[in-house]
Each structure stands twice: as C-alpha cells, then as structure tokens.
Design goal:
Length: 319
C-alpha cells in the first residue's frame, strides 16, 4: 500500500512516499481503508522529534482517521465490513493514518456521523475529542456559565466554541480579526482581536471584574498564566499546550488548573456523533491536500495566519 513514511526527524522534507505492506487485522482489530486524515500540531511535533526515542523509526504519522472497515479480526463484535468509521490513533503508535490502510483495536473506533463526508469526519477525532475532554471531562462546564476560549478559529478552538454553545455557555474567544466572521458563525458571543485588543481589560470590564467561570487555552505560551487574571474565584482553567509564566494566582483564587490530553476517545466520539447528527456541531475544514502533498499540509499548519483556520485535512483515497 502507499504510505508517507519518515525515517528521520526534521522539517516537512522528511516525508517520503513509500510502498509498505498492507496490514492484517489481529484479534479485536479492524482493517480500515483510510479515506481521509488530518494534520494536528502533534503530527508536526512528532515529525520534528519532540518526543524523541519514544517514536520508533521508520514511522507513519497521522492520528485522525475516517474510512471504511474492509476486514475484521477475531472477536470483533461492534463492527462489520462496510461500516463507515472514524477514530483517533495513539500518539506513540507509529502506524498512523498517512497511508491507504490502518489497523486499529475496535475499542478506539466509533461509527462515523452519517451526515459528514469522510473529509469532514477526518477533522473531528483528535481536535473534537480534545475539546470535549477539556470542557466536559475536566472543566465540567454548566448551562449559563461564561467561557473564554483562546484560539477559537483553530482546530480544537472551533470545536470548543460549538461544544460550549451546545452546553449553554456564553463564549468569549480570541482570534485574528480576519477570523471574526467564522467564529461568530459557529457560536462565539464576544470576539476579541488578540493582536490589537487586551482580553484581560475587556473581560474584566464586561463582567464587572468577576471574570469568567472557565478559561481554555489552545495556544502555547503564557496565555494560561495570563488567563488566571480573568478566571473567577473557584473557577477552572484548562490547557492543551505547554505552560509558561506564573501560575500562583490559581492558588490565591482557588482555581483548578487542568492539563488535558486525549485519552479513551471512543465515548467522546460517540457523544460528538450525536451532536453532529443533530446539527449542533459542524466541522470547520479550512484546507485540503492530497496525501502526496502531506509536506505542504504540514507547512501550512506551522505557518498559521490568514487563511489557516479550522482543520487541514489530507485526502488519502484517490490521492
């Protein structure tokens, strides 16, 4: 089968299109014909070598899958040949979705939302599952609460806005002014231009100095630390990135700080499927690339800026 393989760490030039053996499903596993995958910041981090020897080379990256079950192994109970599925592969797996086929244990696989194309569905598992874990599993958001989401036009951020809206929250978000219309269209109530406005001043003024119930940072740097200023006493702060800066205000204000990674994704994907099929969540796909242009997809994500929003999807079948 065709796959994009890395044999060393570095820039996007390390990808090489290679013919590798088609995998065979074992006990409790399904063989999935991959129709689409997507690019996440974790893909770029692994490619650059940030996780070092924990990634065995050569490796196939790609952690989102949307595809069709082509074969099942012994003891598979929940799926049959022909099922449309989507799922998130473990970060350290090394046998990812940048290939025509993938084998996965059925415990991580979920039925694809019926109203999504494979291109749309491939944008959901990692980003949508992470946003769900942050807001529900960790922050436990409630109806009527206020939430600040940093990076609302990004992959995780665009799902977080819609999940928070479905939960009945009032949503502040930061993004570039060029993405204002996008984030408003998916549910943001108050949009702040991170380049030209001070989110602390705006939120403290508009909340009567109380702040918000939950802050969620999808952007690296000191945003988590700075956001503690606008988090209420007894509030919650969540991040999916590395942390810089002084977190001591969390102690003084009794703020619970959560660091989130996607674990046990299947229940989250099954819950997201319901909201997607009800029309409460719509994936934001900003760009698509064929598999043989995976390097360009990585470059675009790392460049960011105008025109790079939502998820970058890689179409595998037919590319």
């Amino acid at each position: 089968m065709k796959a994009m393989v890395i044999t060393g760490f570095g820039g996007s030039e390390v990808f090489a299109q290679t013919e590798v053996d088609k995998p065979v499903p074992g006990k409790n596993e399904v063989l999935v014909k991959v129709y689409a995958t997507s690019v996440n910041p974790a893909d770029c981090g692994v490619r650059r070598g940030l996780f070092g020897p924990r990634i065995q080379l050569p490796a196939i990256l790609g952690y989102d899958v949307s595809g069709v079950v082509e074969a099942i192994g012994e003891n598979v109970r929940d799926f049959q040949v022909g099922d449309e599925v989507y799922y998130a592969i473990g970060l350290m797996d090394g046998h990812g979705a940048n290939a025509e086929y993938n084998v996965a244990n059925e415990s991580i696989v979920a039925k694809k939302p019926a109203n999504l194309s494979h291109t749309e569905a491939a944008s959901v598992p990692v980003a949508g599952g992470t946003a769900w874990a942050a807001l529900f599993d960790r922050a436990s958001i409630k109806v009527g609460e206020t939430v600040l989401i940093h990076g609302g036009a990004g992959g995780v951020g665009s799902f977080a806005i819609q999940i928070a809206k479905a939960a009945g929250a009032y949503i502040y978000t930061t993004c570039g002014s060029y993405d204002f219309d996008l984030v408003k269209s998916i549910g943001a109530d108050r949009v702040i231009d991170y380049r030209n406005e001070n989110f602390i001043d705006i939120i403290m003024k508009e909340t009567g100095s109380e702040g918000v119930d939950v802050t969620f940072s999808t952007v690296p740097g000191e945003l988590l630390a700075r956001s503690l200023t606008v988090t209420k006493v007894d509030g919650r702060a969540v991040t999916v990135t590395g942390v810089q800066g002084d977190l001591s205000p969390a102690t003084f204000k009794n703020i619970t700080v959560h660091f989130v990674h996607l674990e046990n994704p299947r229940p989250k994907l099954e819950a997201l499927k319901k909201l997607i099929e009800r029309g409460q969540i719509k994936p934001v796909v900003g760009m698509t690339f064929p598999l043989n242009q995976l390097a360009q997809a990585h470059q675009k994500l790392e460049e960011g800026g105008v025109g790079v929003h939502g998820k970058i999807v890689v179409q595998v079948t037919g590319s």
